[in-house]
């Protein structure tokens, strides 16, 4: 519905064992069941951060399909889904294997959680390799309508420091952004966009100051009750100003060059 946030944070009390998080996998399967049971279900994709978690979710879905005939019919329909002659089937993929796959709804299973000993150990794998931020950037842009982030730790608990590779840094900032959006903290979410743009490889325009004319126009628009962002975009071809939509605060209703 229009009132729902575009990104929803789903917190679970999971633990990290054998590079898997079973609680998150089970919550993801439950969310898939809820989504595909709707009257006009959206297309769905699930993205994980390692192959072990992907295989666990896939196995749980297949087991549920074997044990629950009602779920089997819906699951089979979604696995074979075509839309306008384009494959829109339900998929479960780890971050390395997501390419041009867009779906209406994407479910992320972050996986990282305290171990049985209570330590948060994140084995970032390909996310920490060169170009890891590009893989994440592709993954977080796959949803047309809605993202569910299923996670077991708060973003600030993710073990990332100044010396960490760009991929894990981007993940931490994205999780902070997702949580702000989910909680309706729109201004906090907007303030993070510049950091996200830099970490994802963009040469953000927001790093430069608005021109005097743009600054004056922004002030006049603000006086008239409109919220305005300056220097929008991750390239030199961005917009000077953009007016934030009053109905959908994470979208813009007008761009101004």
Layout of strands and helices, then pairs:
Blueprint: E1 7-11, H1 22-36, E2 44-48, H2 51-67, H3 69-79, E3 82-83, E4 86-87, E5 91-94, E6 103-109, H4 132-139, E7 143-151, H5 166-182, H6 186-199, H7 212-223, E8 228-232, E9 239-244, E10 252-256
Parallel strand pairs: 1-7, 2-5, 2-6, 6-7
Antiparallel strand pairs: 3-4, 8-9, 9-10
Helix pairs in contact: 1-2, 2-3, 4-5, 5-6
Task: Explain the overall architecture.
It is a single chain. This protein is α/β, with parallel strands linked by helices. It is 37% helix and 19% strand. It contains seven helices and ten strands. It has helices at 22-36, 51-67, 69-79, 132-139, 166-182, 186-199, 212-223; strands spanning 7-11, 44-48, 82-83, 86-87, 91-94, 103-109, 143-151, 228-232, 239-244, 252-256. Helix 1 (22-36) crosses helix 2 (51-67), helix 4 (132-139) runs parallel beside helix 5 (166-182) and helix 5 runs antiparallel to helix 6 (186-199). The radius of gyration is 20 Å and the shape is globular. The two termini are 32 Å apart. 33% of the residues are buried. Residues 203-208 have low confidence and may be disordered.
């Amino acid at each position: 519905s229009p009132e729902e946030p575009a990104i929803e944070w789903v917190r679970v009390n999971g633990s990290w064992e054998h590079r898997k998080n079973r609680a998150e996998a089970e919550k993801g399967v439950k969310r898939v069941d809820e989504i595909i049971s709707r009257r006009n279900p959206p297309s769905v994709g699930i993205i994980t951060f390692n192959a072990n978690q992907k295989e666990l979710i896939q196995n749980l879905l297949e087991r549920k399909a074997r044990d629950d005939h009602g779920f089997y019919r819906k699951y089979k329909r979604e696995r074979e889904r075509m839309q306008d002659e384009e494959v829109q089937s339900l998929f479960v993929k780890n971050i390395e294997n997501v390419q041009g796959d867009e779906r209406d709804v994407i479910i992320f299973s972050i996986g990282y959680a305290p171990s049985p000993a209570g330590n948060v150990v994140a084995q970032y794998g390909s996310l920490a390799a060169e170009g890891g931020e590009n893989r994440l950037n592709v993954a977080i842009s796959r949803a047309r309508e809605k993202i569910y982030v299923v996670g077991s730790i708060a973003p600030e608990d993710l073990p990332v420091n100044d010396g960490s590779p760009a991929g894990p840094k981007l993940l931490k900032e994205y999780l902070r952004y997702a949580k702000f959006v989910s909680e309706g903290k729109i201004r906090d979410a907007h303030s993070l966009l510049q950091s996200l743009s830099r970490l994802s490889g963009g040469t953000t325009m927001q790093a430069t100051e608005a021109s005097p004319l743009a600054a004056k126009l922004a002030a006049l628009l603000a006086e008239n009750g409109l919220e305005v962002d300056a220097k929008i975009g991750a390239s030199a071809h961005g917009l000077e100003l953009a007016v934030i939509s009053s109905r959908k605060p994470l979208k813009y209703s007008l761009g101004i060059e």
